[in-house]
Amino acid sequence: MLEGLAAWVLNTYVGEYVENLNTAQLSIALLQGAVELENLPLKKDALKSLDIPIEVKSGFIGKITLQIPLRRLRSEPWVISIEKLYLVAGPLTNLQYDEGKEKQTEQEQKQAMLDALEAKWKVFQGVQADAASSSSWFSYGASMATNILENIQLKVKDVHLRYEDDKMNPACPFACGAIIKNLSVQSTNSSWTPTFVSHQETDKMFKLVDLTDFGVYCDANVTMMGDLSHSDLSDHEYILRPITAQGKVTRNTSALPLRSASTPRISLELTLSDMSVMLATDQYQSLNLWQREFSRHGRRRKFRQGRPACSVLSR
């Protein structure tokens, strides 16, 4: 059960975005209570599910760690740590419509969803098989697996996501991006104290989100860098200078309909540090061109089946 659950967690949260993720052999690592993966390249189609005209040019994850408290599975959370997530994206270069590839992509997405559901089902089936047809033991194991998934703690450190474009306006190439120093998500009690919470004891789950040094920049008239590891963060022209934020998420997990229409299923209380927002003329122009290109992509997508493969002039 434990091996199957660990494989499902890694495949669900990470497998869609990185190359060469092999979770077939986790037994030895699990015996040590930790799984470590280093220098994982990002897939070129990691952003394809967003259905936007952007593709990954380069990127990698420096380190992924899954920590499992083997002796305290019902009292301490699993921890997923991600360090050094660097991504450089650019405009989609191949916009030609290929009906065969589109159908294949759609089929692959459906298959991936089915695989994820099947993997989760196998975890619970494994619990059932190991229980020797004992319904009480199955209930215990399934409950433990659910509690583990509900209490997964996420820690992300050193993130830089960057989009570069020298095609839309060759006279003024631009780059925009987001930077995060630290991000953590963890379960808490109703007093917002981090703890391991059992979903059987309450209909409400609480998540505390802490964000440190989150900033957004847009650099106009820049040289395409393609490599984030040597970038100097102080040189960027920030739209939103780095801020610190904390979010308190309350989620009603009851299977019953809510009694009041004014009671939300999910609520968020957000606390922000002082914000400094600036937008220069060249930044506005670059972002405006980018937004117009996205709008054109949305209109073009509706009629892409009938779009000619060559330009009118070439005929």
TrEMBL record:
Keyword Transport applies: yes
DNA damage recorded as keyword: no
Key words of the record: Transport
Domain Chorein N-terminal intervals: 1-313
Pfam families to which the protein is assigned, alphabetical: VPS13_N (PF12624)
Superkingdom per UniProt: Eukaryota
Family annotation (InterPro entries): VPS13 (IPR026847), VPS13_N (IPR026854)
Name by which UniProt lists this protein: Vacuolar protein sorting-associated protein 13D-like
